Amino acid sequence: MRGNILYIVVPCYNEEEVLNETTKQLKEKLNNLIKEKKVSSKSKVMYVNDGSKDKTWELIKQIDKKESLFTGISLSRNRGHQNALHAGLMTAKEYADIIISMDADLQDDINAIDEMIDKYNEGYDIVYAARSARKTDTFFKRFTAEAFYKFMHFMGVDIVYNHADYRLTSKKVLNSFSEYGEVNLFLRGMFPLVGYKSEIVYYERKERFAGKSKYPLKKMLNFAWDGITSFSIKPIRMILFLGIGIFIVSIFVLLYCLIMKIIGNTVSGWTFIVCSIWLVSGLQMLSLGLIGEYIGKIYNETKRRPRYIISENLLDTK
Asked: Under 8 Å CB-to-CB from 111, ≥6 apart: which residues?
């Protein structure tokens, strides 16, 4: 059994209510892994403070002083879950052989870590942890989440069904992943693009231990929209086909109007004209808006601004 250095990367945004319990459970898990010689004694849990407004960062610094298995970094401001996770992964790969990312709310079953490491030792460089069921979700959340994954597949995005950001990656994978330079991050769709041998383990997601969800409906919709527009051009192609369809229909309408003119029946229907104008105008506005969304993403990419700035790194003090 290889004694690889493991880093568990945990993004945190206003998690002071749950952080002590998360530390307690992860400490026990990491100690057991070290005792069983599945990972090196140099392994750590790295908390990533994503510009929290509460006492999360102060708590992380206290934990870092008390617990040798814990450390942390802090971003200069809130940059969102995906950027915070990316910051943690890119920092951790400089110290670790394998990196596991998970949320701080203890909904991800930490016992799945054992199986993920076993799969890594079998030769898999990426191990995705996917939910086996959605028993803890409301009907609305379960329906929308499952619809999202199916829709992403329909749009041609290679994404692991019911997988969020609970995954194991090797240092080799993250070194390759660091070459991806886009600003608009959708990590669960990006890692399958990297390639390498991968496997899936399944777990049952728990209720949140404490605090509030950081992904209300509005954020979930924005996240889903970012995923679609960052990985698929099918929406633009659908507009193209829609435009072709409307063009074909307009030819028949033109022929109809000419025939009515020839036979002397030139009185046009008011409803038909009004509906045609509103329909075409609405489709034009929708098309321009969608194209504008893609142009906006291109604009953000061309500026090449940093995804995040690390203001403090507790690893530098050790």
From this structure: 29, 203
List, in sequence order, every residue forming a beta bridge with 163; answer none if it has no partner.
Answer: 130
Number of independent structural domains in the chain: 1
Q: What residues are paired with 113 via a beta bridge? A: none
* Contact (CB, 8 A) for 116 and 23: no
In this model, does residue 212 exceed pLDDT 70?
no
Given this model, what pLDDT does residue 177 score? 85
Pairwise CA distance, residues 318 & 314, whole Å:
7
Dump pLDDT digits (tens) for 92-109.
Answer: 999 999 999 998 888 888
Tokens 């109809």, residue?
A: 256
The answer to whether residue 104 is domain-embedded is yes
Instruction: Compute the distance between CA of residue 100 and CA of residue 128 in angstroms, rounded to an integer.
Output: 10
Question: Do residues 145 and 96 make contact, with C-beta atoms less than 8 angstroms apart?
Answer: no
Domain that holds residue 67: 6-231+305-317
Query: What's the CATH code of the domain at 15?
Result: 3.90.550.10
Q: What is the pLDDT of residues 289-309, one digit of tens each?
A: 677 767 766 766 676 767 778
61 in any annotated domain:
yes
For the record, the structure tokens of 251 come out as: 């030819």
**Helix axes of 81-92 and 187-194: crossing angle, nearest 10 degrees:** 40
Question: Which residues lie below 8 Å from residue 99, measured CB to CB, with a gap of 6+?
Answer: 6, 7, 8, 9, 89, 92, 93, 168, 169, 170, 171, 174
| Alpha carbons 203 and 131: distance in angstroms, whole number | 5
So what's the pLDDT on residue 1? 42
**How many whole angstroms separate alpha carbon 43 and alpha carbon 250?**
66
The length of the chain is 318
